Amino acid sequence: MKALIKLAAILFALCFAASTLAAADIEANTPGVTALKQSMQARHAQLAGYYASGAVGLTADGLIAVRDANAIPLASRQAANALVAAENQDRNALYAEIAQANGHPEWQGEIRSTFAQRWIQRRQPGWWVQSGGVWTQK
User: Fold this and answer.
1) Cα–Cα distance list, 38 to 44, 69, 114, 128 (Å)
2) How far apart are CA 130 and CA 128, in angstroms?
3) Are 121 and 35 in contact (CB under 8 A)?
4) In a 3-state reduction of DSSP, which class is residue 46?
5) Between 77-101 and 108-121, two packed helices, what is the crossing angle to 10 degrees?
6) Which of 30, 80, 102, 114 has the fewest CB atoms within 10 Å, counting from its CB?
């Protein structure tokens, strides 16, 4: 009987957490969110070639990473690494800003996961995704 009550409590907690996150507005439109999205959009034009060549890929945690440094000319590697770092900084800030806009900074991890899934689903043919340490191409 105790096990059944404990199971019911766990299920209730999981359902409550899922329904709470479902109420999150991941399309929150604060000045901070708008600025971050504009910055990321401007940078995307510079990153697109790296995605297409397979040099840079999406990670399962909502960030991007250099997948194949050899696909980047030596003279461009520093600039490519700087682009990846700037993109990841903006992505982390975006997740935090959206969680804050919802009044729940503790939702940042779930918001990150939601965005990661969206970006992976919407990736272009030929782009790479890392999951569990393994890279796969769409």
Assistant:
1) 10, 27, 20, 24
2) 7
3) no
4) helix
5) 130
6) 30
Which stretch of DSSP H or E encloses residue 98? helix 77-101
Rounded Cα gap, residues 42 and 52, in angstroms? 17
CA 41, chain centre distance (Å): 14
pTM of the model: 0.81
> pLDDT by residue (tens digit) across 7-41?
334 444 444 444 444 567 888 889 999 999 999 99
Cβ-Cβ contacts under 8 Å for 120 (sequence gap 6 or more): 58, 60, 129
Pairing mode of beta strands 128-131, 56-59: parallel
Contacts of 114 (CB under 8 A, 6+ apart): 26
With the C-alpha atoms ordered 7, 12, 15, 20, is the resulting torsion angle positive or negative? negative
Closest by CA to 84, choosing from 67, 106, 65, is 65
